[in-house]
Amino acid sequence: MPEFDVALFSQPQMFTEPFGGVLSSVRASVEGFRASFVQATTRAGTDWKGEAADAHREAAKKRADAMDRLQEALANAGRVVQSGGQEMAAMVNALRQFVNSMMSAGFVVMPGGVVLPGPPHYAEATAAGPAGPAVLAAYQAIAADLSVAIRTQVVALTALDSATASALQAVLAGLATVQNLSPGAPDAAAEGFDPNTALNQNRYGPLLEWTTPGQNPGDSPTVETRGTTMETYLDTTHLPETGTRGERRIPGGVNPAGYDPTVHARGHLRADTLGGSHSDPENFVTLFHRYDPGDPHINETPMREIEMRVRRVIEGRQAGVPAQNVRYRVEALGDERLPHSVRITALGDRGYRETAVIPNW
Fold first, then answer.
1. What does the DSSP assignment read for 324-347?
2. Cα–Cα distance between 57 and 38 in angstroms, integer?
3. Which of 23, 52, 198, 317 is most buried, by CB atoms within 10 Å?
4. For 265-311, what is each residue's pLDDT tens digit?
5. Coil, helix or strand for 190?
6. What number of other Cβ atoms are within 10 A of residue 106's Cβ?
7. How far apart (Å, rounded) are the C-alpha atoms in residues 89 and 96?
8. Residue 13 burial class via C-beta count within 10 angstroms: exposed 0-12, middle 13-18, buried 19 and up
9. If 0-12 CB within 10 Å is exposed, 13-18 middle and 19+ buried, where does residue 234 land?
């Protein structure tokens, strides 16, 4: 994850604008070469007959098709670079404006993005006499909230940077395929996946279990469980229709270990949007849930963004990434009732890959 200072002084346009121009130039060259190639091969075939001529025309057609795919890949890469760069530049500018506004209000922004009350606030607290400690405490609380807001912006910028890099990686994988340089489908076993997992099959790890004796003699013990790992191989077949989430409810009896409905969510390992079960205890862990819009917890923004991106890749709706089936693994890390973090690994059949470890807070 980029540090606050790196994000604050970054200039995405210094990379995206020249790179985007190079991609456009190369695409134009390929387009011109294809036109000349088709014209030359067509002219050569006018008076040339026989099996050799037929083989030549078939090979020429395949090369022309390959150049079409190359142009498409270059165009996709250009779109990814342009859109990702523009969004990152806008977020960096917003972060700078936010920091400047805090400094104008007298706050001190330390390296790392920590906000502290500034000299004007201490002077005001001193002038407030007996009320000084309360005044200073109020400014310290505001500074803490501003620190959280900075952290949230840096996390969002990091997620966008990661998404742009993943999209470019997938485009380049497609480009290698066009040039016959691709090593083929990724080695699932080498990436830690079970190659025998069938499409849309769920492979769960063992449940973790805790037993608490009853409070009184004769009371039944309380048994709590939570999921540990889930691995599946996703295609479009079992993805639920968008807009139908309200039709699927988690049964009231499915409460993973440590679950407190006031602060937690019953988090799916295989997400609902990816066709995950709503009743299998092995598919659930307790995750913190966002209630403060300025403080995105694990189950609201970070995990959801990855889950939705995986779905878009499978459906062919992720900019610059070809549609593909995706091997998907989620691991709830730690041995406590609440996992300390969640690791997500996604591996597509056509170049897409993504890995993230998200703290559970």
1. --EEEEEEEESSSSS-SEEEEEEE
2. 10
3. 23
4. 899 999 999 999 988 999 999 998 754 555 555 555 678 888 999 99
5. coil
6. 15
7. 11
8. middle
9. buried
